[in-house]
Amino acid sequence: MSRDDGAFLDDVADRLAALPAVRAVALGGSRAQGTQGPDSDWDLAVYYRGPDFDPAALRAIGWPGEVSEIGGWGGGVFNGGAWLTIEGRRVDVHYRDLEVVEHELAEAEEGRFHVEPLLFHLAGIPSYLIVAELAINQVLRGALPRPTSYPGGLRVLAAERWHGTARATLAYAKANHAPRARLTEVAGALGVAAAQTGHAVLAARGEWVTNEKRLLERAGLRGVDGIVAGLTADPGVLAGALGSAGELFEGALSSARGSAAR
User: Residue 11: CB partners within 8 Å, gap ≥ 6?
Assistant: First the structure.
């Protein structure tokens, strides 16, 4: 990080930390993990407690961009945020309700979670995603709870649930779309099931996931590209592709479980 970037981040973190009810500010995304490129944006989360947090205070700073209301991104664990441009840099600000974060941390430690739809995410997001942020992101201001490790119960139950969902996605497509030569629906099912399997594989390994951007690469599922590329609007081809994908997915998960057992 250059001095210019450091000064920029310090100033933005200070201004976010000064918002009413904000208790902590964290840096996430590629910049938190040191994998950013020259065009990477800045992902920041504001952790607040209580009803006094008001996006109007963030809007009043005057940074250009869009500032959603609480719940503006559909509610749930991702309950809103802002897409901003600050000093020529793209900055995403995510709202994190500390009561929700603490609840999901306790749930994850018991192996419990739920899945929510979220724009741009094929499989939706598991509620433990905000726990993954606690484990990975860099706290810039304030203090946050952190998981000491990937919960053992979550490794088992999340892998099982995601695996079952992926199998159901493929089975539905095979029974309903492939026989009717529905090429687009089968292609979509392959993409969704691949993302679901990616979550299963990484859960089995005990590796945190914060988004789907590199999910297939990390899970060793990039081979699904070749299956999708070979699709044609022929029932036999579509059924064969779903079968091949199922074999790829089962193999990846079996390997992940085998590695975890050693």
Answer: none
Q: Please indicate, yes or no, whether residues 194 and 215 belong to a single structural domain of this protein.
A: yes
Global model pTM greater than 0.90: yes
- Distance between CA 258 and CA 252 in Å, rounded? 10
Angle between helices 152-172 and 235-261 (to 10 degrees): 170
What's the number of domains the chain is made of?
A: 2
**With left for phi above 0 and alpha for psi between -120 and 50, is residue 81 left, alpha or beta?**
left
- Residue 147 is assigned to a structural domain of this protein: no
pLDDT per residue as tens, the chain (262 positions): 445 888 999 999 999 999 999 999 999 988 888 778 878 899 999 999 999 999 999 999 999 999 999 999 888 899 999 999 999 999 999 999 999 999 999 999 999 999 999 989 999 999 999 999 999 999 999 999 999 899 999 999 999 999 999 999 999 999 999 999 999 999 999 999 999 999 999 999 999 999 999 999 999 999 999 999 999 999 999 999 999 999 999 999 999 998 776 6
The amino acid present at 60, given as its one-letter code, is A
Q: Containing domain of residue 119, as a range?
A: 3-142
